[in-house]
Amino acid sequence: MSERLQKVLARAGIASRRAIEALISEGKIKVNGRTAVLGDRVGPGDRVNVDGQPVSQDKLIQQPCQVLLYHKQVGEVCTRHDPEKRPTIFKKLPKLQKGNWIAVGRLDINTSGLIMLTTDGELANRLMHPSSEIEREYAVRVFGQVTEEIAQRLLKGVMLEDGLAKFDKIMDSGGEASNHWYHVTLKEGRNREVRRLWESQGVSVSRLVRVRYGDIWLERRLRPGKCELLVEKQVNLCRQWVGLEPVASQRAIIRRAKESVETKRDPVKLRKAKARPPKKHTPRARIRRDNKKKKKR
Hints:
Shape: flat
CATH class of the largest domain: Alpha Beta
Strand content: 15-25%
């Protein structure tokens, strides 16, 4: 079955739909050797090149949408291949027969906590995009004196080198002396944004843990360095946040397939039933008759 080119490439994690549409308009995508145009459709067997690089056939075939939660540890990086040979989270993930795990944003090497990954590139792009306004919540231990004035500035907005940034909420979580815990929320995921916001006020972050992404929490049962798959209901919740259609129920597909097989088998069973001899002519019935005759004698 063919689908729109930008939809297939976005799902494969090549780029967002808008970015792919821009590449098509710039003539940087080819389908079967021909320069692609908006509206082109592709399917299994088509040859697609993006900016001179071929796209593997596996990426053109729609894979089941899966979402994975991983509890990142301090010291791990969120890249597939690290030139410094540091441990990467991708070494800890379950292997896929087809497709790849795509990280929904990143956490820096000194930050731990919840990382979401998915096999659907379009879902990943939409979850990360600031326009989706999905809340991220962090537990942060701050070293230094945090006054009410500092908190208000962080809520109102601080100009960083890459633009205005702010927290949506700051919640006091207790602590001792100058090492104090807070829970903060924001709706974007710029590089080291939480740390840079606190540092702009003359205090430092001594520990940072992401505990929530949208309505998905880092549960205590998910130990550091471990991962778990979301169930279908949770996957569809993530898709609903960003306006994507729900995934088809695998159980429903299997059930329909079984019903179809059973329906085909029923006539065969009926034919066999009609072909059976009457009970009085079966071998067991003959044995019973013979035994009765012997008793009479």
